[in-house]
Amino acid sequence: MNGILYFSSTGNSLYIAQKVQSALGGKICYIPKYNGDGGEFERIFLITPIYSYGMPSHVFDLLPRLDKTKELTVIQNYGGMAGGADYLIYSYAMSYGLNIKSVYKMKMPENFTLTFTVPKLYLKGILRKANSRINNIIEKIKSGDSNIPKKCKTKEKKYLKNKFNWHLIGENFSVTQDCIKCGKCVTLCPVDNISLQDNNVVFGDKCVACLGCYHRCPKKAIIYKKQKKDRYINPDIDESQIGKDIT
Ligand SMILES: Cc1cc2nc3c(=O)[nH]c(=O)nc-3n(C[C@H](O)[C@H](O)[C@H](O)COP(=O)(O)O)c2cc1C
């Protein structure tokens, strides 16, 4: 069976994971809850957003523990500037001795939208093309060819510097009076960084900047630096499935 390991905060990577599952079969596993090394699967697919020209913390931490004997295919998705992230993940995988066969990347709607709003028409256009983009990748995977990213200058230093500072983002979140203390943000945070204390939402110092709480708050009550910008959730998936394993 294929193991389709994914991280997703707003559903784009889950959308891709589900397409891979329906085309190639396999079990979808949410990385923050996955303690394995992929050894129980025949092949491993790693579906991840690009963060700061690199990858989310959970993916960064998962890579070195993956089973070196299993064939690994990575599918990255990003909002606009991939900046050598495909070569970066490939080089990390090589340095850990992983059996990496391919890295693909595709554009999806941007979710790092704390300070700006993506125009709706532009967003719709990207979503319209998502199906054919992932189908092209699936066809390439089916062909059996490998897809090694061209050697390029990565922005590794910038990535590591940003990664080191992601926790600062959490410091700038607060909630408005619209908050109904439903606890959804507490449950969905992949690092248990949010808690309800004396009926107040409290953000800790472990934020990994995924922005899941911000985008998926049912009342749009979580704000960043007092700004209220548009929220995004991939409209082509069932939001309640983000963070779940799917067989
Ligand atoms: C912390 C953070 C950093 C990001 N950095 C980049 C980036 O460097 N380049 C880019 O094109 N998109 C970037 N994005 C956008 C995401 O890669 C993109 O929206 C992705 O499709 C989100 O996937 P998801 O819905 O599965 O979480 C970033 C998003 C976040 C939250």
Task: Explain how this protein is built.
The chain is α/β, with parallel strands linked by helices. The protein has two domains: 2-155, Rossmann fold (3-Layer(aba) Sandwich); 166-224, Alpha-Beta Plaits (2-Layer Sandwich). The chain is 32% helix and 19% strand. The chain has helices spanning 12-24, 57-62, 85-95, 120-143, 156-165, 167-171, 184-188, 212-216, and strands spanning 2-6, 27-30, 43-49, 71-78, 99-107, 173-175, 194-197, 200-203, 222-224. A five-stranded parallel beta sheet has the order 2-1-3-4-5, sandwiched between helices. A two-stranded antiparallel sheet has the order 6-9. Strands 7-8 form a two-stranded antiparallel sheet. The longest helix is centred in the middle third of the chain and has 24 residues, at 120-143. The protein is globular and about 55 Å long. It starts with a strand and ends in a 23-residue tail after the last strand. Bound molecules: flavin mononucleotide. Flavin mononucleotide (FMN) binds next to helix 1 and strand 4.
Layout of secondary structure:
Blueprint: E1 2-6, H1 12-24, E2 27-30, E3 43-49, H2 57-62, E4 71-78, H3 85-95, E5 99-107, H4 120-143, H5 156-165, H6 167-171, E6 173-175, H7 184-188, E7 194-197, E8 200-203, H8 212-216, E9 222-224
Parallel strand pairs: 1-2, 1-3, 3-4, 4-5
Antiparallel strand pairs: 6-9, 7-8
The structure holds flavin mononucleotide.
